[in-house]
Amino acid sequence: MRSPVYEPLAVDDPRQIGGYRIAARLGAGGMGRVYLGLTQSGRRLAIKVIRPEFADDPEFRRRFAQEVTAAQRVQSLYTAPVIDADLNGPEPWLATAHIAGPSLGTVLFESGPLPVDTVRTLAAGIAEALQAIHRAGVVHRDLKPSNVLLAADGPRVIDFGIARAADATPLTRTGGAIGSPQFMAPEQVLGHSSTPALDVFAFGSLVHCAATGQSPFGQGPAQAVMYRITTEEPHLDGCPPELRPLVAQCLAKDPAERPTTAQIIADLTDSPDPVTSAWLPEAIVTSLAPYDQVPTPPPPSPPFATTVPPTIGLPPAPGTPTPPPPHGQAWPSSPTAAPPAQRGNSPALMILAAAAGVLVVLLAVILAVVLSSGDDETPSRDIAQSPSTAPPQAQQPTAETTGPQEGSSEPSTTSTPAPDAGPDNGVKPPGTFLDEYKGIGITGGYGITFLDDPKRPKEGDSGDFDFYFDGSYLWGDNFAYIDVSAKGDYNTCHDTTLYEGHAMSSPGAGSRLCVYTAEGLLGIVKIKSLDSSHLVIDLQVWQGPADR
């Protein structure tokens, strides 16, 4: 059964993780990919598999283990409890109870701001979740709409504590930030210590966003938003009057001036359980039904040991079918000739056999001649080579196309020395302009590969440049912003040193980025438009320098 809200598995997705059957994809982000898993009894789990880039870092594993252990102590009606985890495998994973509902981010994107009464109930549930998280000694550090799920019986806060584990990896130590800019606290932006008050600030931004559909600190490039968070007061003009005083207190620059979660709960409700069965608008309640339609898991892959490896030694008898390779592998195979329909010594067959023998001898003679002509010590011809007055080809300057300059659609040409002669490996000299693409659309969870056809994004996160559904992260090998006053060309990207590791919070429309890939290519990306689920870019691709 195919679900309208769950993404089907791709060919390379696992069919089983830790003994749990995998039924579908739930999403992807900067930390990894999330799957819908099923226990033997049919209970649904959300299983997050951590990216290899994080899993390879010992400090991440150490902190991840600490945070998972702490998260298991969190007990609240408004969190997704941790059910299972594998902290020591090649790809660590964490399983929590699956929540049958969309994220707050999805609802805001599809339906707009929520009614005030719904926001108050939502806020009370989130405040209770934060209270339980803080009691367990955990600070969420990445509270945002995509980390709040909406179910019929109340909201659920997910992914608490994982951001702290990622904060220790080289991917973030090199300049990238963990946390979504619109929901970061000033002390988080400035790199100060994290306390529960950090989550209260994010809570205030989230409540404002749920009620208005906007961040209290506006939109734009991450640096601009973070600057406003640390230096400017929030813009609360559109916030409903019933919520504005609480939001303003939560967004105080000084952490000591923000309310505690207990004070927030007391301000929002007089009931010990603030959530009622009719807390969501009817349109959203109706949209929850497909989340209960669990897709049927695909059949399990056959065990690796049951497949037959390729035969080494004597070939199979004529007409014997070639055994299939193990799942996920492909072996080169040559067709086995079928036995002839008749056997006999007819004249036609004898003539064909003789002709074949002559052809074999001829081929052998030709091969011997070719091989002997390639021997440097044996003259292959008697015609003398006339000396050339031109310098060797490797020393001649070559014209190099450097791509369109700023403000021009035509490539410019500069003269650069050619590299020393050597085997042709298909790699262009550094600075060579390769191609340009206009108006590439990338849906969340898809990416493009510069070596391939960038106009056709592929599902998954293995491309040179990826954009994730929650609109919070871009993913590539190395990012750097191009200053507004600088030219968007190869030299600008080559000279800058302000690269941000592998993950970057989504920049605003009009931003320009330099992106280096592991294959040695340089992409210059211009953001044309961006929302929470779709990105449109222009792209120039260059051959990058050898020293990157």
UniProtKB/TrEMBL annotation:
ATP binds at K48. Residues 328-341, 384-424 have a biased composition (Low complexity). Pfam families: Pkinase (PF00069). Keywords: ATP-binding, Kinase, Membrane, Nucleotide-binding, Serine/threonine-protein kinase, Transferase, Transmembrane, Transmembrane helix. Residues 312-327 have a biased composition (Pro residues). Residues 20-280 form the Protein kinase domain. Residues 290-343, 375-433 are annotated as: Disordered. Gene3D superfamilies: Phosphorylase Kinase, domain 1, Transferase(Phosphotransferase) domain 1. The chain crosses the membrane at residues 348-371. InterPro entries: Kinase-like_dom_sf (IPR011009), Prot_kinase_dom (IPR000719), Protein_kinase_ATP_BS (IPR017441), Ser/Thr_kinase_AS (IPR008271). GO terms for molecular function: ATP binding; protein serine/threonine kinase activity. This is Serine/threonine protein kinase. It comes from Actinocorallia herbida. The lineage of its organism: Bacteria, Bacillati, Actinomycetota, Actinomycetes, Streptosporangiales.
